[in-house]
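Please decode residue identities from the backbone states below.
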């Protein structure tokens, strides 16, 4: 279970669906939350929640790594442990400083207060009744900002609808309590930005230098200065975003450059990447007014009078730049500047820009198995094998909508519509009843990763090697329609207490993916090939069904310095950027410790057709079993990922 409840979501003028571009998510599961600052009161993290305990009039914590003016949706889960009308807990938005912000607070007696604090004076804007937020009851809050209006929902029921709040501009999000002890969880903000300039204006954009104008559905720089810059001022970001823009340079010499700006603080401090029409790209930093070239690289597709697409990916402190989908700069460290704006830049040229888009990491799916059921296999879900040759098995489907995250099974990855348990055994015959003699899946109430009672998935295999079948397994598989780019997977895993004995002299799979060419796979495993009773984590990039058997990474990466936890929860994270070139990357971490961060070729031309987020699959004797909780799948590293 995600201990914090409702996922905060912003649904810019459209209903929430599970296919948004998430800008920021925080579940408070990993200790002090990066980017959060206490403004007043006492705030602490424990048990997977963020708690305010000082019991003052205005105890506030804010998130500093981004700021937004409007067109965002902000969700959070709240539990208030006091019970009187004056004991209030809520959220803060458009926060400028401790004297200027908006807030909505909720009394456990059923009254909600929409307030503005201007110049230090709190003014109530609107009051309304609501339900679901009594003392010790978790409830979900959603604040939707659209233009100058605010809508607030509690547990999806509208409490305030399109209330005008126009006094404050770009500001931070935060949490607030008044005379109460309260906890918060599952902060979720969505604030994608797009601009195609078709409306004839560059709304929110401010020229810093040069002459900028909208015309013909594009934004043009025409002053031909050394550093003509315009910036978008209605939001700021620090990292964990992807910034797209189309660029057209109308001049043709090497000194005529056009590009994009990011982490812009002021005219003397920002990053930029610029492109000459002669085929050279320049990654620069401007610090204290001095421009320094960080890196130079060739690129193609940006000749004079040709539109080309630029993509800047900021992940933690690294920058990746692509042109027309091809990587030009890969994971270049840029750590000098913090929260800043995006913008556009030209140097001694006349250039136009279009289709500006900024989005955060995309959350594909999340579940803590709350309100999820497992549909028993039906006769049509099972198949018969041939003893000693073809295995038998059954499919099983998880079903339902997670009551905390809002995501529904099946997982829809890269256009796919299926995610199922594949339970394979050598037994013949097999049916929906007898499969339970070999393996099973259950949703169980257990003590979770943070000490609270929670739902988790339990997987067990009780018989192996029936009819000499080698590969008995209980695998959860996500089936994509095609391969759609990078992927990050995170979950909590607890192995059986005697797992070290079970894996002695053999292996156990934690997570993997497979391609369409035979059994070509990348797997994160637990192994004890030394047969010494001390299992280690390892990574296998191989193809066991090829003839002959192929090991692509040899020697196999092993990590004896990190103990394999048994009988206790641990966090698993894996990320991949698949490529046949030098920009490929495979990264894996356990309990926030990076085990492998390997660059270089890591794929063939064949696409991924199966992703196994987790599976009960081992080479040792039965029984083997495990628990899984808090699965997240993202399109890239989220803000809550371990250091990468």
């Amino acid at each position: 279970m995600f201990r914090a409840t409702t996922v905060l979501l912003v649904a810019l003028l459209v209903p929430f669906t599970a296919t948004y571009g998430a800008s920021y998510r925080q579940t408070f599961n990993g200790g002090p939350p990066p980017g959060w600052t206490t403004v007043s009161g006492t705030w602490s993290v424990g048990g997977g929640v963020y708690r305010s305990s000082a019991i003052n009039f205005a105890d506030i914590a804010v998130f500093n790594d981004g700021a937004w003016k409007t067109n965002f949706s902000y969700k959070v889960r709240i539990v208030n442990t006091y019970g009187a009308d004056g004991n209030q807990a809520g959220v803060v938005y458009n926060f400028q400083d401790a004297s200027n912000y908006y807030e909505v607070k909720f009394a456990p007696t059923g009254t909600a207060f929409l307030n503005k604090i201007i110049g230090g004076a709190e003014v109530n804007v609107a009051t309304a009744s609501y339900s679901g937020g009594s003392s010790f009851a978790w409830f979900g809050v959603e604040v939707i900002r659209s233009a100058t209006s605010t809508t607030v929902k509690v547990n999806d029921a509208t409490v305030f609808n399109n209330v005008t709040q126009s006094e404050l501009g770009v500001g931070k999000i935060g949490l607030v309590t008044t005379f109460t002890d309260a906890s918060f969880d599952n902060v979720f903000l969505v604030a994608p930005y797009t601009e195609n300039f078709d409306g004839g204006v560059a709304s929110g954009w401010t020229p810093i230098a040069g002459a900028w104008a909208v015309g013909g559905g594009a934004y043009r720089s025409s002053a031909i200065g050394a550093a003509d810059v315009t910036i978008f001022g209605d939001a700021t970001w620090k990292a964990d975003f992807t910034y797209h823009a189309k660029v057209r340079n109308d001049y043709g010499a090497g000194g005529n450059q056009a590009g994009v700006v990011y982490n812009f603080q002021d005219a003397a401090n920002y990053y930029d990447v610029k492109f000459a029409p002669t085929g050279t790209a320049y990654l620069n930093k401007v610090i204290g007014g001095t421009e320094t070239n960080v890196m130079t690289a060739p690129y193609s597709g940006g000749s004079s009078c040709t539109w080309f697409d630029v993509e800047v990916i900021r992940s933690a402190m690294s920058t990746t730049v692509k042109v027309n989908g091809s990587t030009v700069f890969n994971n270049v460290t840029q750590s000098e500047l913090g929260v800043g704006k995006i913008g556009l830049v030209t140097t001694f040229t006349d250039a136009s820009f279009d289709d500006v888009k900024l989005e955060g990491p995309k959350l594909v799916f999340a579940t803590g198995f709350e309100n999820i059921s497992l549909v028993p296999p039906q006769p049509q879900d099972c198949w018969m094998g041939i003893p000693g040759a073809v295995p038998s098995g059954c499919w099983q489907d998880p079903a339902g909508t997670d009551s905390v995250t809002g995501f529904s099974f099946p997982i829809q990855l890269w256009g796919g519509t299926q995610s199922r348990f594949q339970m394979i055994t050598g037994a013949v015959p097999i049916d929906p009843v007898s499969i339970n003699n070999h393996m099973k899946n259950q949703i169980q109430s257990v003590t979770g990763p943070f000490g609270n009672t929670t739902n988790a998935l339990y997987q067990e295999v009780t018989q192996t090697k029936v009819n000499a079948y080698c590969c008995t397994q209980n695998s959860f598989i996500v089936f994509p329609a095609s391969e759609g780019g990078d992927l990050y997977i995170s979950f909590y895993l607890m192995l059986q207490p005697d797992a070290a004995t079970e894996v002695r002299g053999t292996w156990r799979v934690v997570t993997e993916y497979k391609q369409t060419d035979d059994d070509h796979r990348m797997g994160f495993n637990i192994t004890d090939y030394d047969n010494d009773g001390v299992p280690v984590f390892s990574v296998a990039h191989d193809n066991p069904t090829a003839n002959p058997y192929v090991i692509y990474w040899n020697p196999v990466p092993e990590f004896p310095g990190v103990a394999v936890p048994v009988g206790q929860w641990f966090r698993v994270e894996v990320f991949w950027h698949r490529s046949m070139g030098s920009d490929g990357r495979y990264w894996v971490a356990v309990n926030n410790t990076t085990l492998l961060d390997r660059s270089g070729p890591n794929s063939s031309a064949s696409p991924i057709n199966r992703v196994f987020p987790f599976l009960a699959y081992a080479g040792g004797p039965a029984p083997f079993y495990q628990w899984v909780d808090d699965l997240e799948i993202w399109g890239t590293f989220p803000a809550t990922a371990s250091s990468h």
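Observation: The CA atoms of residues 401 and 407 lie 6 Å apart.
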